[in-house]
Each structure stands twice: as structure tokens, then as C-alpha cells.
Amino acid sequence: MKFKRLVTGALALAATGLLVTACSNKQKANSTGQVASKQVLNWSYLAELATLDPSKVSDAYSGDIINNSMEGLYRLGKNSKIEPGLATQTEVSDDNLTYTFKLRKDGKWSNGDKVTAHDFVYGWRRTVDQKTASPYAYLYSGVKNADAIVKGEAKPETLGITAKDDHTLVVTLEKPIPYFQLLLGFEPFLPQNQKAVEKFGDEYGTSAKTMVYNGPFVVEGWTGSNLNWKLNKNPNYWDKKKVKLETINFKVNKSTTTSYNLYQSKQLDYTTLSNEQAKQLAKDPAYSALKQARTTYLDFNQTKESFKNLKIRQALSYAVDRQELAKNIVGGGSQPSLGIVSQGLAEYKDQDFAQAAKTTAGVSYDKKKAKELLKEGLAELGQDKLSFTLMSSDDDISKKVAEFIQSQLEENLSDVKVSVQSVPLKTRIARGEKGDFDVQLSGWSADFADPISFLDLFTKDNSYNFGKWENAEYDRLIEASKTTDASDKAKRWDDLVQASKVLSEQQGVAPLYQTNVPQLINVTVKGLIQNSAGATNNWKEVYIIE
User: Fold this and answer.
1) Facing residues of 297 across strands?
2) Rounded Cα distance, 109 and 236, in Å
3) C-alpha–C-alpha distance, residues 400 and 253, integer Å
4) What mean pLDDT value characterizes the chain?
5) Cα(273)–Cα(331) distance, rounded to whole angstroms?
6) Does residue 182 surpass a pLDDT of 90?
7) pLDDT for position 181
8) Strands in 9-113 per DSSP E
9) Which stretches of 96-242 are assigned E, i.e. beta strand?
10) Whole-prediction pTM value?
């Protein structure tokens, strides 16, 4: 799951940001306020990393680490504003089809190479190349020749990106892309060091040692499968004077009980919380709830006969009490979904997108309707019962949500039998990509502050459309928003609103809730920036006080 239009310097984003800097009088009293001599941060994650390859990343945790160890044209900084990354100046042509970026001359890779415009050309070409199989290649649609390259109909070398010299990058579009500059700090648009990619081959990005870095930190100790690693300050980073932390230690704790105990014993500076913990700790000075532009949903594998049936999908959706799920199972201020697009992400003429696209279909709780639809759906399939496996990630929160869904479906629909299978996040993603599931508990965090970041996922050929839902009207509306209506804000907005309604009414997926993350962050941690859309954590200027 960033970026609003800019010409030079920094510009405020539409994404909601949370700057964690304030502290209470009680906190101040317990601290000298002086910068600690030891600048080490200890952080907990709920899931393991999947990759460090910017072309292949698809999960939020890996994205967090990549965004703090790599740097693109821009960074997401304080108060949800763009900060200079490698681009010092941007010029946009009058027709919005040509972007010229001037790059700083002191960018450096961790292997000692200079970061140049050629690294962007190489990285972008690699991402759209069919051989790479990047799940995010679709985001390049609209860059000259990108669609043809992704389909294998043109060579990567024809992509509309050129290096005029080492420090001048030119990007050519086929059509104006309203959200183009929102993409440019996102992982798939990062530069890549050709020497490193060719040296490590298929191992590139699969461990800390098979990667090079150009951001504030470098990754150390990640083998590709272990549950702990470090971010160490990058001595080659152009802006290293602003980086105060020497080390960030990461440990995967899938149980919030474990991570909270470690926090209590001062072995961690950060932990997420369960709903029960959040209720007990809401008045703690270290407590906060991060509102995320993230929707958790049920993804139906529609290559299977049972889930091709609209009434079956609708029955399962109507059988889930989202109010109960959001309030009492997930907690932390999480909200029932109004649709696939999260609330607060985007608005037009003072109307929030989620409210504009709201329907009763697709997100409502109605036991009677669920039973009727199930009966009709089973009759159409010639079946008496429905049995399937619900796959989820194996962290505590995901498992609790999956178990709640299981109980709701079995209690409200007597002819439904659900088995829950909890697997590591990396495994769930891999199985999702292969279509190796019945129904999965999935989620999406907006990569940038535009509804298309959610809605693009469910077009026919999108790489993240794991359930293979298809709807011609939906695809037509999304295409119109990117082409004929792209420059007309009102028409584009209406296209996206109508598309969201089609997705809900046809139950392409079943949106469940919008996530708020209850968390404890040690009051001695200052300068942390957390954002709802895009990479969650920016540790570049974090420091520890005594």
C-alpha cells in the first residue's frame, strides 16, 4: 500500500498520517528528555518477512523494511508530506505526459556504487519484464509501452523511461495518470543495482546478504526464513546525519501475549495489542491506535464450482456479523467495512469515497437472507451441504478472526461446515498466488491515497485477483477511470464509485472490517512517523531519549 501531485520540494499528501511525538506530563516527569547515548530500538512484528526484492514484494512487513533500507525519488515524511529522496527537482510537461527528474549526485549503494538515473531505468524495466513476474507490474499501466511489455508483446527496453545522463531521468506516459506521482515512492518504482541483481541471480532479495541498499538503513541477519533480523545505520546514505538510530532489532512474535510480556520486561519498545489488551491499556501513556487504510476481506476461489455461484458467496457474506467482529474480536477502534475501499482514504466535494460507494449488499448481516440464499445456491449446485477450508495467517489476531468467521458460518448456516487452516503469512501469499485455497482471510492496505489502489485488484487480469472474480462491467468502469475519464475528476470519481458498488453487489469478495492497530510505543521513542496508506513506519529520524 502515498503521494500527491508535486513539482519541486514537498507537498502534503491526501493520506492520513500519524506522527508519534507527543508525550504526557507524566511521561516527561519520568524522563530526562536527553538523547540517550545508546540509540537502539527493539521492534516486534506479527509476521515474518517474505522478500527484500522491490519487484516482488507484496506484503506490508517486507514493504516496511524495504522502504527503510531503500530510497526512490521521494520519501513519505513528517505530517504526511513528501520529503526529498533522490529527486531534487521535478518538471511536468503541460500535457502531463512527460516527467523530468533531476537526481542528487551523492546517492550511493551499500556496495559503493553511485545511484544514478540508469538504476531507475534498470529497476523499472526489470519490474515490468514478464520474466520477473512482479505482482505489481500492473501499476505501470499508462507508462509508455508498459501494458504491451507486461503482456509479452514488447521488450522491456521500450518502456517509457530513459536516462538523459547519470542525474537526469525522463518518464514518458501514453496518457495522463491522475495518481502517477502517488506511486513514485512505492517499492516497485525504486531503483535497482544491476550489478547486484546479476551477481545474486535468483537469490537476489531472498536474504540480507543477497541485496544492496541505498536508504537510511541496511538489513543484517535475515536469512530468508528466520524470525529476527536488524536494520543498521547505512554509512553510505546521503542523508546519514539525520539518522540517529544505530540499530533496530526486529523479532517476530505471532502472539501479542508474548510480545506484550517482552515489552513489559523492557526487551521491546513496540508491540501490537489484542482487543482485550487494548481495553486494559487504553489509558497507558504509551498507547495509541493507528488507523490504517486497510480492509480485511474474505477472498473466494471462484475457479471452484461452489464459489462461482453468486448466491453461495452472498450467503456466506450475509452470515457474518461485522459489527461484532470489528468491536469485540478485532477491537482497537476497528470499523465494519462499508465496501472494499477504506474510510478516510479519499474524498471528492467533501464526500468520503467509502460513504459514496456504500451499499447494503455485500457488507450486511442478515441471517434469514443468508439461509435463503444458501438454500437456493445449493439447489443450483445440486448439493445438500457446503464444506470448505478457510485459510488465514497464523498470527494471533488472524487466527481469532478466522475462528470467529468459522463459528458465525456454522451457527447461522446449519448446512455449512468450515475447517480453519492457519499458515505463515509467506505461505498464505504463495498459496494465494497459486490459487491453492478454498476461501482465504485476506487483506489489502492502500499503497497510495486513491480508491484505485483497492479497486484495481479485482480486474480480470490483475495479479492480486487471487480468487479470479470476473465482471465485464467492473472492468469497463475501471478502464474508463484510467482512460477516457482520467482527466475529468467528476467522471472518474463516478466510475470508481460505481465499480465499488458492482464489486459489493456481485460479492466479488466479502469486505469485513477496516483495521485500527492498537499499539504500545515506548514513550522514550521520538520522531517516529506512521501513516495509514503506504509503508506504515518511517524510522529515518527516530531517536531515543533517556
Assistant:
1) 442, 511
2) 7
3) 16
4) 92
5) 9
6) no
7) 85
8) 17-20, 40-45, 74-76, 82-84, 87-92, 98-103
9) 98-103, 161-165, 168-172, 217-220, 228-233
10) 0.85
Which residue shows C-alpha cell 490483475?
A: 462
Within 222-309, residue ranges assigned H as helices are: 256-264, 275-281, 305-308
Three cell numbers written together for 460: 480480470
Q: Give the helix/strand (H/E) hosting 287.
A: strand 287-300
Report whether 388 contacts 438 (CB < 8 A): yes
Give the three cell numbers for residue 495. 466510475
Residue pLDDT, tens place only, 416-439: 999 999 999 999 999 999 999 999
Say if residues 287 and 27 touch (Cβ distance below 8 Å): no
pLDDT one-digit tens code per residue, 234-249 = 999 999 999 999 999 9
C-alpha cell at 387: 464444506
> What is the rounded distance in angstroms from the CA atom of residue 53 to the CA atom of residue 85?
19
- CA-nearest of 504, 500, 513 to 322 is 513
Residue 161 to residue 158: CA distance in whole angstroms: 8
What does the angle CA 264 – CA 64 – CA 38 come to, to the nearest 5 degrees?
50
Residue type, 52: L
- Report the distance separating Cα 140 and Cα 445, nearest Å: 19
Three-class DSSP category at 447: coil
Dihedrals phi, psi of 91, to nearest 5 degrees = -115, 135
Q: How far apart are CA 160 and CA 172, in angstroms?
A: 5
Q: Distance between alpha carbon 153 and the CA centroid of its chain, in Å?
A: 29
Q: CA nearest 52: which of 246, 295, 214, 169?
A: 214
